[in-house]
Design a protein that fits this description.
Blueprint (H helix, E strand, L loop, with lengths): L7 H12 L4 H8 L3 H8 L9 H39 L5 H15 L9 E5 L2 H14 L7 E7 L5 H12 L10 E2 L15 E6 L2 H19 L8 H11 L1
Parallel strand pairs: 2-3
Antiparallel strand pairs: 1-4, 2-4
Length: 245
């Protein structure tokens, strides 16, 4: 089947537009000629029509548009995901057991687990995760607020007083419970990913809570994957068996 027929005048006009720096999309919008046809006509004749400077200008113009489109697509996807998560959580009834399970799993992932550890030490850079852990701990146990301690590791670029106030307000723990800040060495010349809120160590002096929430997390894991792990403490093993029933 024969394609569209274009007059010499139309082809000449397209040629002039191309010679002035118009791209195929712009010419198509003006004259209605497919880009594939334009490429056949001009790919060799106008191969160098866009110099490097012009290409950079063109890229600088279209990149923000492309990035904005990508951001909107990601935002729509994330909104759908959040909606699904919210609907799922509505089916989950809140209870002390669920709070302790979430607490144990969080601590198993990000807490200090050594038997020699004095109390509960949960470490993270994400304020939301630290706040969640503190909330679950307070909801699951009758905590003594005087047993909380905070230690913050910072870098040279952090505003120390602002950072202490931020964590104190977020966790509702007085500044008097904060240990002296540790400034970690970091080269000012090398590129690295900056951490805006430092590294927060949330400490609570109660080793019994640490042992219990770890036992819950391990018992849950054993129940899910159907395996049995040997534990050092007989008390912890007996507790885990009771939870796993």
């Amino acid at each position: 089947m024969r394609g569209n027929y274009y007059t010499k005048q139309t082809k000449g006009r397209a040629d002039r537009l191309r010679s002035r720096g118009k791209n195929y999309r712009e010419i198509k919008e003006l004259l209605g000629i497919p880009k594939s046809t334009l490429s056949t006509w001009f790919s060799k004749k106008h191969a160098n029509i866009f110099d490097k400077k012009a290409q950079l200008i063109h890229l600088a113009k279209i990149r923000p548009i492309a990035q904005q489109s990508i951001r909107k697509r990601i935002e729509r996807r994330d909104n759908v995901t959040r909606l699904g998560a919210t609907q799922l959580l509505k089916k989950l009834e809140s209870s002390e057991l669920i709070s302790k399970l979430a607490l144990g799993l969080l601590y198993w992932a990000e807490g200090t687990k050594s038997p020699q550890t004095n109390g509960v030490i949960f470490t993270n850079t994400d304020p939301l995760m630290i706040k969640l852990f503190a909330t679950l701990l307070r909801d699951s146990y009758q905590v003594d607020e005087n047993r909380f301690r905070i230690r913050i590791h910072v870098h040279y670029y952090h505003e120390k007083k602002t950072l202490v106030k931020f964590w104190s307000d977020l966790l509702d723990i007085p500044k008097e419970k904060f240990a002296p800040l540790l400034v970690k060495p970091r080269s000012k010349k090398r590129r690295f990913r900056k951490n805006p809120k430092g590294i927060c160590f949330l400490c609570y002096h109660n080793s019994n809570i640490r042992r219990e929430i770890l036992a819950i997390a391990r018992a849950f894991a054993e129940k899910v994957i159907g395996l049995k792990y040997s534990m050092n403490s007989k008390d912890v093993e007996a507790f885990a068996k009771n939870i796993a029933r």
